[in-house]
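Batch job 17 of 40 flagged for manual review because the log was empty.
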Amino acid sequence: MSQKHIPVMLNEVLQSLAPADGKVYVDATFGNGGYTKAILDSANCKVIAIDRDPNVKERAKEIKAAYGERFEFCAGCFGDINSLVKQPVDGIVFDIGVSSMQLDQAERGFSYAKEANLDMRMSCDGVSAYDLINTASEKELADIIYQYGEERKSRQIASKIVNERKAAPIKTTKQLAEIIYQVIHKKPGQPDPATRTFQALRIAVNDELGELERGLCNGLSILKSGGKMVVVTFHSLEDRIVKKFFSEKSGKKVHVSRYAPEIPENQNCELTNPSKAILPTEEEIAANSRAHSAKLRYATKTSETNR
């Protein structure tokens, strides 16, 4: 089987998950199957994989042919993990955001570096980036770009988009990138100015943050006592959601308001021992550029006797 794409922080994922014989694990973001294959190879266990992208089905067939009954694929959104997976499981892995496979397929319209129609839909259906760019109001666009891209010049970019689309619809990734460059000029050695806006549109099109929140909550509901939840994120918005979820579910004090009553630690906690953010090694970052912004966090489902 070909392994074109390198799964990020694979060693750290396996160390955190600690796959064991006879156990059942969920790879909630199957992609090219990197985590799935590594988990299956590390123990005589079963993996149930989930992905909303119809383009991964051929890869899923390859893994099925190699591992038989030890592998099961479910087409759908990982936010619906509790309805897709019909049994309690011993561990869940999430690799959040766009996959390198999706970025590499120019026709999917995820990348400003490749000419393609604006699309960005992971599931290949529903509202596309083209729809958003050409129909959303200036305020809606500015809010999306600011909230999901953390782009300080969101209003100027939104204004420029709306002015440009009056003449003709904005159809391609290159068109949109050139509009952004009119607001923020490209500089040698600096990150591409289109990065934040493209990230924001992708998150909005796929409801990625809502999907993450649902996935964590619903994933916890199917996790067995002692089971591990492992999450790899790629930007601060994702990591913040995971950190907050792990903190709240482990009974750690989360500051909300100085006027709100303090919740004692370990009261009705569902998770225990949430890790701090684990970063990729310098060697991995050098070998795989996608890893540079990655963070891994994991936690363990509380044993019933401790609750």
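Reviewer: the log was empty due to a logging misconfiguration, but the result itself is present. The first strand starts at residue 24 and ends at 27. Unflagging and moving on to job 18.
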